[in-house]
Write a structure and sequence with these properties.
Blueprint lengths: L1 E7 L6 H15 L3 E8 L5 H9 L4 E6 L5 H14 L6 E4 L11 H9 L4 E5 L6 E3 L3 H17 L13 E4 H11 L10 H12 L4 E5 L1 E3 L1
Parallel strand pairs: 1-2, 1-4, 2-3, 5-8, 6-9
Antiparallel strand pairs: 4-7, 5-7
Helix pairs in contact: 1-2, 3-6
Length: about 220
């Protein structure tokens, strides 16, 4: 079983096509799945799009009454996913803006099945592509990644901030049992770095696959 935990904030027009894309990939690959979408207090039609898909797909809306930020949305997404998961299930996190192409999920899930605990869709592996991002922003991102790799080296990891990841449910459960509500405390995209460091602390085996990122 693949269980998606997706944070979303003001993603009207994007979250619906993302959920449709996930459904198409899962059907094509004949994979069982469920998706939990955390609407982090959106002020647009995000919740309505999620509810529309929930009427025909295995999708559940998890609402925050107010905007609480990416860290809180990630905590909620992982919590509800783990509560619904068996130890050998795969939990996939991805952005709600439809820039993370779901066609990569089966490959990431296979990597988990082959023994990894965390698989990251990486911008820094051979054959990865980043489309629609100005060169300056790409350079800044690359520089930040170098700082993280030098300061917090983790075997198998180059992309510390991308939120498109697959986790072995048992590994996430162990991390939650150890840190509880403090599993994710940093705000913004720093929470993604913090989560990787937590997973490294429990001895998680990590790897990356190249991603095509379309903005």
């Amino acid at each position: 079983m693949i269980i998606f935990g997706i944070p979303a904030y003001n993603e009207e027009g994007a979250i619906g096509p993302l959920l449709d894309g996930i459904a198409a990939v899962m059907e094509r690959e004949r994979l069982d799945y469920r998706a939990f979408v955390v609407d982090d207090g959106s002020g647009d039609g995000t919740a309505a799009e999620i509810e529309q898909r929930a009427s025909k797909l295995p999708v559940t809306l998890v609402p925050h009454e107010r905007n609480m930020g990416l860290a809180a949305a990630m905590r909620t997404a992982l919590t509800v996913a783990v509560e619904d998961a068996a130890d050998d299930d795969v939990i996939v996190s991805m952005d709600g803006d439809n820039t993370h192409l779901p066609g990569l999920v089966p490959r990431m899930a296979r990597e988990i099945g082959e023994g990894r605990d965390v698989v990251i869709a990486s911008r820094y592996q051979p054959h990865a592509r980043v489309l629609g991002v100005p060169a300056f922003r790409q350079l800044m991102s690359w520089g930040a990644g170098m700082v993280f790799r030098l300061t917090f080296p983790i075997s198998g990891v180059k992309d510390y901030t991308c939120g498109y990841r697959a986790y072995r449910a048992e590994a996430v459960r162990r991390a939650m049992e150890l840190w509880g509500e403090n599993l994710i405390t940093e705000q913004g995209f720093a929470c993604q770095v913090e989560l990787l460091l937590r997973m490294a602390r429990i001895g998680a085996i990590m790897d990356e696959v190249p991603m095509v990122l379309r903005y």
